Structures are given as structure tokens and as C-alpha cells.
Amino acid sequence: MSPSTSSRWCPTPEQLMILEELYRSGIRTPHASQIQRITAHLSLYGKIEGKNVFYWFQNHKARDRQKLRRKLIKQLQQQQPYHHHHHHLEQPQHIPSNYHLFNYFDHPPTPISGEIEVAPQVISHNWKPEIPSRFKMESPTMRMCSHDWMMSMVDIGLPSPCCNRPLKTLELFPMTATNVKEEHTNTSSKHLSLPTPTN
Amino acid sequence: MSPSTSSRWCPTPEQLMILEELYRSGIRTPHASQIQRITAHLSLYGKIEGKNVFYWFQNHKARDRQKLRRKLIKQLQQQQPYHHHHHHLEQPQHIPSNYHLFNYFDHPPTPISGEIEVAPQVISHNWKPEIPSRFKMESPTMRMCSHDWMMSMVDIGLPSPCCNRPLKTLELFPMTATNVKEEHTNTSSKHLSLPTPTN
DNA sequence: GCAAATTAATGATTTATTCAAG
DNA sequence: CTTGAATAAATCATTAATTTGC
User: Fold this and answer.
1) Which of A41-50, B40-49, B89-98, B142-151 has the lowest mean pLDDT?
2) pLDDT value at position B145?
3) Exposed/middle/buried for A189, CB within 10 Å: 0-12, 13-18, 19+?
4) B4 pLDDT band (50/70/90 cuts)?
5) Partner of A14 for a Cys bridge, out of A28, A45, A113, B126, CB 3.0 to 4.6 A?
6) Is B42 helix (H, G, I), strand (E, B) or coil?
7) Strand C contacted by A124 CB (< 7 A)
8) If you average pLDDT over residues B41-50, what whole number do you get?
9) d(CA A52, CA A48)
10) How far, CA to CA in Å, does A141 sit from each of A31, A81, B25, B152?
11) In B, residues 88-117, which contact A (CB 8 Å cutoff)?
12) What does the CA dihedral A19, A23, A29, A30 come to, rounded to 10 degrees?
């Protein structure tokens, strides 16, 4: 392939440095006007289009998050193997039956005073956990498979027919493989591409 | 930090996933019986109490709404940053934030009326992605030095005046409207590494 | 040293999900 | 109930790094 007909943008070191500096400064998903300016200034250092800037931030953010997610999963899995579920654990710890009153009062006894709790949000998106086999089907409360359990919960939660969302089959529990389905090696479909791009 | 010394609940990935699945399925404010059951099942995966479940739903719902609200406000506000200092390269072209969608909207302009067109996915693999000319930048003439320019970009990107540098430990305020507060790894660049000057 | 072969990074696309407006 | 807008996740595809045999 001729170098003049490169099919995708190849950032120059200066462009990359500036993009990373912007990212480091907090920009994650720039909008149209920002993309426009960034593109204009980065074009001083080489050929670039707005879509390149857009894609760069998308990918960088996603892969940053992916990295962090993987790190956290590893940490959490190595930290505590979570002993229990031995005997009568199906007794939950002391739910005062006035919990429903919280819904009315909406004032927790220990007020979370405005600050943002980070922990759930950090790892709040999809990820594929790896459940050791000893956690699979042992406890008496796990007789129901979790999909069924979830369905029953949703059933209770939605007595009125307001949410008929199809509830696409999300894999809550990976079946057997201890594979965190990342690192997808792209040896799957390597058919040759068309020879002459119309550039 | 050891989990035994942790003063607050730290959800395991399994717990978090199940909670999010329940949330996605429509549960927003579970009542006492639901909380009880959810807690019972989640306790298979780690230490948890009913109040954790309760608070999780409260917080998740609130932050979901907050995120949406801020996103909408932001994207409305970012339509007018055009009265900055000097803008002789400002083009009236409107770059939407979703560049990728333009492949759908743009390339098959329905040449044949009255016939169902072939689904774009069928032919999209060998499609030569060329952004229409209205997205292409003209050669910029702005010569602001990159530091000042970067600051202005960050200014736009950060409506909150409190964070203009990466906080290493904990970030209480979201920098952009829609991001999840993950921390970045600064060493992702292979071509250049910036020695983090602003400290 | 060098290319061919292989692997890792990353740019570019597609798909799915969300909320809310119509 | 449908659709629009936005974007995150997943995937595809190409380039760069690197490994390997010579």
C-alpha cells in the first residue's frame, strides 16, 4: 500500500501529546465545538479530521476504563475469597421492617452529606466476573438460578405493567470458562480486504 | 485496605452486577420485602446488609438522574461558546457530537424512491468512510500557543472551576457531564511521555 | 541486519442501552 | 409505544512492535 493512501489516521507525536494532555485535564467526550477547535489546532501538526478526534476520545476513554476495570476485578478477586454460605446464611442481617419508611422520609440516619461515593461508579459498568465453582450452586438460597430469581424480583418490583422492556438476555453468570472476555485476539476472521481504496 | 477494617460496605463485582441488572430491569425503590430478598441473595457473594441495598438504590437512582440532567445542561450550554476572543477560523459547520451516526444518515440519500433500500450493514464493511466535505477543516490560521489554547479548551471542558489538574486520589466532582470517575493511566502513550508539568 | 510471521495497539464501525419527548 | 439523541460496549480492521529464522 502506498503511504499516501493510508486508510486510517496516524497521529503524530505532537498530536498525541496534546490529546493526552487534554484527556488528562479532564476532557472525555468533547462536543462539536470542542472537536472543531481541537481539530483545527491539531491540524497544525499533521493531517487530521474531526472524526479522528472524536474517535480518539471515545477509544481512549473506553480503554482507560477497561484497564481500570480489569485491575479492580483482579484486586477484588484476589482480596477476599469470601468465606461463608456454609450453613444457615439465608438469614439476612437484620433488616428493620421499617425500611420502607425510608422511602417516605428519604433521610438516612447517617446522612451521606453531598459527596459522591466513588466506589460503585468506578466499576459500575459491564464486566464479566469470574465466579469460582464453589459459589455456583451450593447454597440453598441459590437453588433458583439467578435469572429466575431476578425475574421474580422484577415481578415484585413491577406489579404495574409499566416496564415491559424485553430484558435482553444478559449473561449474569459466565457459565464455565474462567475467561474474562477481553483480550479478544483477532484471529477470527482475517479475510483479505479489498485492494483498491478509492482514495 | 483490608476489608475487615473497612468502615463501609464495598460491593463485590458480583453484587454490583446483580444490583445493576435489577436496576436496569426497572427496580428503583425496592420495598422492605424486596430489600430483604435481594440482601439474602447478595450475601452469597460477600458481606452485605439491607441498608446497603437500600442506599445503593437510592444513590444509583439519584446519580442517574443527576448525570442525565448535567449532560443535557452541558450540551445545551456548549452550543454557544462561540463568543470567545478571536475566531476567524470558526466555521458555521455544525459538527454533531455523534460523528459515527453520520455514516447512517449521510451516505445513502435514497436515490431510488419507492423501494426498500438494502440495509446499510450489508454493504457497510467495505464502505470507504469519507466524511463529507463540510466536516473537513480548512487550514487554520490561529497561532495561539498551545498552552493557552489548551487552557481554553479545558476551560470549556470543565465548567466546574475546581478541577484543572488530575486528582490522583479521589475526585469528588465530575469533570465532564457523562464520565465515570475513572482515573487515567498516564503512561499510555508510546510515542511521547509528558512529564506532568503542572505539579 | 532483514523481512516474513506473529502479536499487541489502536483507529474506525457497529450494536445496544438509556432517558425522555412526541 | 415509538422515536430521537447521545454514548458506552463490543467488535472489526489496520497499523506498529516484536519475534523468529535465516
Assistant:
1) B89-98
2) 59
3) exposed
4) low
5) A45
6) helix
7) no
8) 86
9) 7
10) 48, 19, 21, 56
11) 89-91, 93-97, 99-100
12) -50
Q: Of A66, A35, A65, A37, which is closest to residue A52 (Cα–Cα)? A: A35
Q: What residues of A are in contact with residue B77 (Cβ under 8 Å)?
A: none
Distance in angstroms, CA of B124 to C1' of C13? 9
Strand D: which nucleotides have any atom within 7 A of a protein Cβ?
A: 1, 5-17
How many angstroms separate the CA of B71 from the C1' of D6?
Answer: 9
Interface test with B, best of A116, A131, A138, A196 (most B CBs within 10 A): A116
List chain A residues with pLDDT less than 50: 1-3, 84-145, 157-199
Cβ–Cβ < 8 Å for A13, B110: no
Amino acid, single-letter form, for residue A137: M
* Through-space separation of residue B126 CA and nucleotide D6 C1' in angstroms: 26
For B87, nearest residue in chain A (alpha carbons): A37
Interface A-B: count of C-beta contacts within 8 A: 280
What angle do the packed helices B32-42 and B50-77 form, to 10 degrees? 100
- DSSP-derived secondary structure letter, A141: G
Cell of B58: 437510592
Least confident of A36-50, B15-29, B50-64, B169-183: B169-183
B137: its cell numbers: 477543516
Global pTM? Answer: 0.49
Decide if A1 contacts A191 (C-beta within 8 A): no
Q: What long-range pairs does A87-90 form, CB within 8 A, spacing at least 24?
A: A89/A139, A89/A141, A89/B43, A89/B44, A90/A139, A90/A140, A90/A141, A90/B40
Segment B103-119, tens digit of pLDDT: 433 333 333 333 333 33
Band of residue B53 on the pLDDT scale cut at 50, 70, 90: confident
Question: How does the average pLDDT of chain B come out, rounded?
Answer: 55
What's the pLDDT score for residue A125?
34
In sequence order, what DSSP letters do the residues of A142-168 get, joined into one string?
A: GSS-HHHHHHHHHHHH--STT------
For residue A8, say whether its CB is under 7 Å from any atom of strand D: yes
B125 touches strand C (CB under 7 A): yes
Q: Which three cell numbers stand for residue A72?
A: 479492580
